[in-house]
Amino acid sequence: MAASLGRVCKSGLLRTNYGSLFSQQTHNFSTANQWSKGRKALLTCLGVTAGGITALIYALEKSVQASSGAHVPDYNWSFYGLFKSLDHASMRRGWEVYKNVCSACHSLQYVTYRELIGVTHTEEEARAIAEEIEVEDGPDSNGAMFMRPGKLADHIPSPYPNEEAARAANNGSYPPDLSYIINARPNGENYVFSLLTGYCEPPAGMPMREGQYFNPYFPGGALGMAQVIFDEVVDFSDGTPATASQIAKDVTTFLMWTSNPEFDDRHRIAIKMVIIMTALSALTYYWKRHKWTTLKTTKILFTPTTKK
Predict the structure, then answer these.
(1) Which single residue of 30, 114, 251, 303 has CA 20 to 30 Å from 13?
(2) pLDDT at 20 over 80
C-alpha cells in the first residue's frame, strides 16, 4: 500500500515538474525568438539608414565636384608612389616663385621661416630671408611697440594688414591663404597646376565683368585673379629654364610641401614599417614551421586488434 502510494505521488510530482519546466522553456524560447526578430529588424533599419546616408554623401560630393569647373587632368608627379619623395630642388624654385610672384596677394601665415631649414634653404639662407621683413614687436621697457628684423620663428607675413584691405585691393575678392591650399581642393596638386596654366578666352555668350578673368577649372569660370604665370616671369637661381609649365610645376610642388610638411617623414616611416613587417613575417613563418615540423612529420599507425 505504501509502495503504491509512493509511486502515485512520485509520478504526479514528476508530471507537475516536467509540465512547468516545459512551459517555462516554451515561454523562454518564445521570448528569445521575439527578441531575435526585433534585433534583426533593428539591425536592418540601421543598415538601411547607414546605406542611405552614405549614398547621400556620395551624391553630394559628386554634385560638388561636377559643379567645380572643367575636369582636372591627372599628371604624373614626381612625388607619387610609396617610395617617392618631394623634389627639394623643385621646392626651392617654388619658394622663389611664391616670393617673387604669389606673395604680392597670397599669404603663408601657417609657415615659419625655420621650417625652410633643411627643406629648401640652409639655416643661414633662411635667417637672411627672415631678416628682410620688419615685424612689430614689444612692448619695450617704456611700454612702446617697436619694429625689428624678422627671426626664424616668425611666420611668413600676409601682404595685407587685414581681410578688408585685401578685398579692397582685389575688387572685392579675397585671396586665400596658400598654406594648405593643396589639401583644401579635391585633387589639389593637379587643380592648382591646371588653374595656373588654364587661362584662356571666355566662350561666346559668357561676358566677363571688370576685374574677372576666364579660367575653365575655376567654379563658374569667372576668376578674380589675373594670369600671373608666364614664360620668364622669374629667373631661377639654379639656371633652370623658367617656362610657364616649369614655374607652375615648381610652385605646386612647394605648396604640396606646405600642405603636407610631414610628407617625406611619413613615407620614410612607411618604408621602415614595410621592411620590419617583412622581416617579422619571415621570422614568424620560420618559427611556425619549426614548431609544427614534429607534428607534421609524425606518422600514426593504427594496428587492428584481434578479438580473443
Answers:
(1) 30
(2) no
Supply the pTM of this predicted model: 0.73
Alpha carbon 195 to its chain centroid, in Å, reads: 21
Mapped onto helix, strand or coil, the DSSP state of residue 134 is strand
Q: Which three cell numbers stand for residue 300?
A: 600514426
Residue type, 270: A
Give buried/exposed letters for 214-228 (b at 16+ CB in 10 A, else e).
bbbbbeebbbbbeee
pLDDT of residue 146: 86
Q: How far apart are CA 215 and CA 49, in angstroms?
A: 40
Rounded Cα gap, residues 296 and 289, in angstroms: 9
The 3-state DSSP class for residue 214 equals: strand
Nearest-angstrom CA–CA distance, 257 and 119: 9
Contact 130, 113 (CB under 8 A): yes
**Span 160-209, pLDDT tens digits:** 999 999 998 888 889 999 999 999 999 999 999 999 999 999 988 888 88
CB 134 within 8 A of CB 147: yes
Q: What sign does the CA torsion over 61, 63, 64, 68 have?
A: positive
Helix (H) or strand (E) holding 97: helix 88-100
Nearest Cα to Cα of residue 227 among 197, 193, 192, 191: 197
Question: Which parts of 109-187 fold into alpha helices (H)?
Answer: 123-130, 163-169, 181-184
CB distance 116 to 129 below 8 Å: yes
Separation between Cα atoms, residue 96 and residue 94, nearest integer Å: 5
What angle is formed at CA 131 by the lines to CA 103 and CA 243, rounded to 5 degrees?
35
DSSP three-state, residue 296: helix
Using the Cα atoms of residue 185, residue 187, residue 191 and residue 192 in order, give the sign of their dihedral: positive
Sequence letter at residue 54? T
Q: What is the DSSP string of 43-71?
A: HHHHHHHHHHHHHHHHHHHHHHHHTSSSP
Please give the biggest Cα pair distance in the chain: 124
Distance in angstroms (rounded) separating the CA atoms of residues 235 and 307: 103
